[in-house]
Amino acid sequence: MPFPINAVRACYPALTDGYAYLDGAAGTQTPRSVIDAIADAYRSGIGNVGGAFPASHRSDAIVAACRAAVADLVGGDPGGVILGPNMTTLTYRLARAIAGPGDEVVVSRLDHDANVRPWTQTGATVRWAEVDPVTGELPVEQYADLIGERTRVVAVTAASNILGTRPDVPAIAELAHRAGALMYVDGVHATAHGPVDMRALCADFYATSAYKWSGPHIGAVVADPALLETLRPDKLASSPDTVPERFETGTAAFADLEGVTAAVDHLASMVPGSGSRRERLLASMTAAEEHELELFAELLAGLETMPHVTVYGKPARRTATAYFTVAGHTPRQVAEHLAGLRVNVWNGHNYAWELTAALGIRDSGGAVRAGLVPYNDRSDVNRLLEGVALLG
């Protein structure tokens, strides 16, 4: 059946303002069910966890439900879902617990800086996987030379946040695991664009951020609880020493955690279906990915026919994310021009610090990023193409 785009769009109040929201790679809009869930949590009364009174019990239940929802989304174990303010903060916390002087870490120039800098700052020896600047691919073969007996962790993205490239994570993981190294997979960009199975990816750690898939600003890292038991992060002496709580510093944003659960339920319900939430998520996100890629083929073809436009990257497998420049205009000028036409896009390096340097455009302002998420429709694509054409 066709993807029910009109029904999906009707879930998002912000989409009534007349703008084409093609900035989803930086953060999505929020459906009404998520807004209501967060507001209802506050209305119901919430307290800190572990107390003897009902408001505290509600928070206990919210946390447990959120862990279960994130686990369903990525195919993980609820007991290994670490929650926090964002992926960057959690990755810094885990990097310090995993690697240090005497170790080696392998990072890639394809990645968002949040899956690079935390590892390079651990004191471990850093080895770099290079990206093909023409295709935007991350060749697997190089990892055989990069991974050795001292490799503690291999950090790699499941999808580039500017080119959309989906590297062969399982093949890289096979090399890492053969050497006894851990795989830390940044799924922040990938999770919004299709079904996720962290076990199929062979990820020891899978990181994601709810605000990239219609939720609030909450991050999560998912791992096997048994693996987490082997790690000792810095923590307060008085805070819980259990897993995954020992990785969670401070008091959680409980109402936002309720919103995360609602966001996962929203993703699971975009297309009609039955079965467990995990089964419905797989079906719904598969349909959403097909919808996005169908529209993206039109968006990409339209950009590539314009002689004044340069599109970066030609990966074989990708998300619906385009990164391009327009001759005679800075990326910021293009973004401002499109904003004047009520089309939202991003410009700049978008924290792909190493990748934009490899492409040779970081110091000149990067490029323009336009990305599709499930609520985008053909009119959004057409408005972007019409706006870019006016700059020729």
TrEMBL record:
Organism: Nonomuraea polychroma
InterPro entries: Aminotrans_V_dom, Cys_dSase-rel, PyrdxlP-dep_Trfase, PyrdxlP-dep_Trfase_major, PyrdxlP-dep_Trfase_small
Listed name of the protein: Cysteine desulfurase family protein (TIGR01976 family)
NCBIfam families recorded: am_tr_V_VC1184
Domain Aminotransferase class V: 21-384
PANTHER family, per the entry: CYSTEINE DESULFURASE, PYRIDOXAL PHOSPHATE (PLP)-DEPENDENT ASPARTATE AMINOTRANSFERASE SUPERFAMILY
Pfam family, one: Aminotran_5
